């Protein structure tokens, strides 16, 4: 019985000691960025991804430019009407000034609604991408 206890204690001691000895060999530092940048197939994969997503990205960029152009045109249109009203205001009656202001406000609201719709469509396209 004493021999079994001694053998068990010795086996347990060796098992624990070997675990500490091998722990030093298992510790390492890996720089994942370096590995990804220097992988042999990195350029091939990057080219494949570019070829796959480039047409869609170009469509999205063109659509964004179109929306931006429409926004700029709408702002320019409203600003032109405001400038014309400011120019003509001294010669107009108060009722005519208010009528033009209401027209400008309606135009601005309609343009804003249309632009919001376009922006929502653009956001939807981006999310689908």
TrEMBL record:
The keyword Hydrolase does not apply. Residues 1-23 form the signal peptide. GO terms for molecular function: unfolded protein binding. GO terms for biological process: protein stabilization. SUPFAM superfamilies: OmpH-like. One of its GO terms (cellular component) is cytosol. Residues 57-95 form a coiled coil. Gene3D superfamilies: Skp domain. Belongs to the Skp family. This is ORF4. The gene is skp.
